[in-house]
Design a protein that fits this description.
single chain, mainly alpha, Hypothetical protein af1432, 0% strand, globular, binds magnesium ion
Length: 346
């Protein structure tokens, strides 16, 4: 009764890696507060935005949803700091990249089906998961790596998921950043996209304050970005008029923001990078997180007997350690760290 892409989505939702997203950091570590986004709620927001855009453009919503729900499966605990730390640990062993890890999970690491390893997803979902990768890695990926070598584009649905990811995180990081108190409305007033929307809300609702003012502003920002993306993509498709999917792969990226919105989006990203992702309180946490990942990796690689038996491997022990560490949730990684390093813990 289901299409191939619906089945892909369902298999992703039922996977172990998907459930773990609930306990993995987006920006704020999972235990820092109950209201912040996690990788799970982030992925659901990406799927919601991508589906809305794809419906408006009459694209395949199920494909977009599958790609969106799977796009962050390969993330390590503790967000980007965790990935950077694991990549540093794996430097001599082929590196670590969360996109490729997402593919590894759906192709290989999930063990649920009698007939095959992984989830046996369609080519289109798999290629959508691999957002970017190095040429060196692309050569090892087979079918989904070819487009990086040939300089071609993935499906429009995958292109849209990519931008829906940006729309989701820029806006929810504004929301979470304000909720945490690490950034302020005052600072954000100077950022074009936020500034003009909050001014509009204050004109229409002069007495609105607090969380509702922020939420009303953020929802309008999302709406502006989504509508601009739909309009610009529609115009790009009309201009290039690809006859079929193969022709579309040869076109420049057709899913795009208009130049003005693209510039505003970039300004917002830059603001968040400087003021939120590099805020000293965030850096303290990510620094600690990086050390936990580094310690775990060294301990396990130094003595693989400390690993659960299924991760003790003779063929590629570093990769098996990376798979194990990357699969951990934030709190599991902290617990493992205490078990291995804290005297008196078991
Ligand atoms: Mg994401």
């Amino acid at each position: 009764m289901r299409s191939n892409y619906q089945r892909d989505r369902d298999r992703i939702v039922h996977s172990t890696a998907f459930r773990r997203l609930e306990y993995k950091t987006q920006v704020f570590v999972n235990h820092e507060g109950d209201l912040f986004r996690t990788r799970l709620t982030h992925s659901i927001e990406v799927a919601q935005i991508a589906r809305g855009i794809c419906r408006a453009l009459r694209l395949n919503e199920d494909l977009a949803e599958a790609v969106a729900l799977a796009h962050d499966l390969g993330h390590t605990p503790f967000g980007h700091a965790g990935q950077d730390a694991l990549n540093a640990c794996m430097r001599e062993f082929g590196g670590f990249e969360h996109n490729l890890q997402s593919l590894r999970i759906v192709d290989l690491l999930e063990e649920r089906y009698a007939a095959f390893d992984g989830l046996n997803l369609t080519f289109e979902t798999r290629e959508g998961i691999v957002k970017h990768c190095s040429l060196e890695n692309a050569r090892k990926l087979g079918d989904v790596g070819e487009r990086f070598i040939g300089g071609r584009r993935p499906s429009l649905e995958a292109q849209i998921c990519n931008l829906a990811d940006e729309i989701a995180y820029n806006n929810h990081d504004v929301d979470d950043g304000l909720r945490s108190g690490l950034i302020t409305v005052g600072q954000l007033r100077d950022v074009g996209l936020f500034g003009r929307h909050i001014a509009e809300v204050e004109r229409e609702y002069p007495s609105l304050t607090g969380r509702r003012l922020i939420h009303e502003t953020v929802r309008r920002m999302i709406n502006t970005l989504v509508c601009d993306l739909v309009r610009t993509t529609e115009a790009n498709v009309a201009e290039h008029a690809p006859a079929d999917i193969e022709a579309l792969r040869e076109c420049p990226p057709l899913a795009a923001f208009s130049p003005a919105i693209e510039a505003e989006n970039r300004e917002l990203k830059r603001f968040l990078r400087i003021n939120l992702y590099r805020h000293y309180q965030v850096l303290r946490m990510t620094n600690k997180a990086a050390r936990i990942i580094g310690d775990l990796f060294s301990a396990f690689l130094g003595d693989p007997r400390l690993l659960p038996p299924q991760y003790q491997r003779t063929d590629d022990q570093p990769r098996a350690v990376a798979d194990y560490v990357a699969g951990m949730t934030d709190r599991y990684a902290m617990k493992e760290h205490r078990r291995l390093f804290a005297v008196g813990e078991i």
